[in-house]
Amino acid sequence: MSSDQSAQQLADDPDWIPHWYDPDGDSAPITHGEGARVIDDQGESYLDFIASLYCVNAGHDNQAIIDAVKTQLDRIPYVSSGKENDTRTKLARRLAEVSPEPLTDVVFSVSGSEANELAVQYAREYRDASKVLTRWQSYHGSTYGTAALTADPSTRNNVNSHAAVTGSGKFLPPLPSVFDAEGEELAEQAANHVEYVIRNEGPDSVAAILMEPVAGSSGAYPAPEGYFERLREICDEYGVLLIADEVIAGFGRCGEMFAMQDEGVDPDMISFAKGVTSAYVPLAGVLMRKEIADDIREDGTDVGQTFAGHPLGCAAGLAAIDEYEDHLIENGREMGALLEEGLHDLADSYDEISHVHGKGLLWGIVVENPETGEPFANSWVDDDVDNPVSEVLGEAKDRGVLVGLGRPDYQITLSPPLCIDEDDVEEA
Ligand code: PLP
């Protein structure tokens, strides 16, 4: 929906609020949460199979996180982002401990968009180069800069008309439908294509390539095996930084603390948000190699935000990471395997499901018209269409399960909290 449409809708109905799940926009407000469920003001309970916005990874009532935030509130709610704070320092150390080894330093922000803004600023500063390349079919945020980096056409159409469009080239996603290849061959062709783009942009002008290890809201697409390994080689050859946007993929969502750990490839930076606190308090940031952080500190170009690294968020983050390590990642892996099995069975039972793909607890169900072999609707060409996938979202909600909509080709996306159990998977 464009901002003009939203403004019109508000003018027609002052009570209208944009709503993710309900195509009719008339749902009752959510007032409570219990484990993987949310409950509305009518007492209706829904299985939250999208973790609200791919973020409530620990479920809606994790007592350890709630207690940690309360304890921090009792001690001191806020400490200036320019001053030392023990909780913030502890979280910075903990993040370095659980992330890929070369990433030792962390800078905090508030949202995922701002984390990516910081990653881009630092990469440009460090490399003394202006371009950051991102891939088509990606989402990196809604701020002036990150909307320009984002390459899901439906988001671009909505937010990009006012966004910065310079300094951000695009490359093709590693999808079988794009390269007409699979597996190793796909990995090689798609990575070589990135090299081609870097060479044509001029390697010295490219600061970084930025991408989601598993594309999130644009469809839960993992990369073929070997893709990131080859990208790492290419980045090393040209001195270009590799930035992983783990805003959705991180914190157990894809089976490891960070999805790049599963790829076995060390990026130069990781941007994170959402799951770091299980969304209990807004917090985000960027993990990076020491030499990048040192360079920024030496140049004195460091910038900060008032609420960056808010102590309440840091307290939530420390407790959430403990919970992920203690049992949630393990449970997420087991439930992910079960979900994968169930989704393949589902795909076998419906001609309209062309395939399912994903990793851990992040999955996409591709729905196509069996007669044409094409998506029923596609936001590349149809801006605001009636399509069966939106109907499925509404129907799922009526049956008590909340799922998401992947763009641009109208997929059903699933991203439940990591605390789900076998019954939840069965029910969904
Ligand atoms: N990066 C990715 C991969 C995302 O999915 C999102 C949000 O959904 C963002 C960045 C932006 O995060 P935020 O909405 O917290 O600004």
Which descriptors apply to this entry?
pyridoxal phosphate; Taurine---2-oxoglutarate transaminase; transaminase activity; Aspartate Aminotransferase, domain 1; five-stranded antiparallel beta sheet; binds pyridoxal-5'-phosphate; 18% strand; 15 helices; 428 residues; alpha/beta; Aspartate Aminotransferase, domain 2; seven-stranded mixed beta sheet; 18 strands; Aminotrans_3
- Rounded mean pLDDT is 89
Q: How large is the count of helical segments?
A: 15
Shape: globular
Gap between N and C termini, in Å?
27 Å
> Which CATH-level-2 architecture of the largest domain?
3-Layer(aba) Sandwich
Q: Provide the helix percentage.
A: 40-55%
Structural account:
This protein has 15 helices and 18 strands. It has 428 residues and is of the alpha/beta class. The protein has 2 domains: 3-61 and 326-427, Aspartate Aminotransferase, domain 1 (Alpha-Beta Complex), CATH 3.90.1150.10; 63-324, Type I PLP-dependent aspartate aminotransferase-like (Major domain) (Aspartate Aminotransferase, domain 2), CATH 3.40.640.10. β13 (353-359) and β14 (362-369) form a beta hairpin. The longest helix is centred in the last third of the chain and has 39 residues, at 311-349. Bound molecules: pyridoxal-5'-phosphate (PLP). Pyridoxal-5'-phosphate binds at residues 111-113, 116, 139-141, 212, 216-217, 245, 247-248, 273. GO terms for molecular function: pyridoxal phosphate binding; transaminase activity. Belongs to the class-III pyridoxal-phosphate-dependent aminotransferase family.
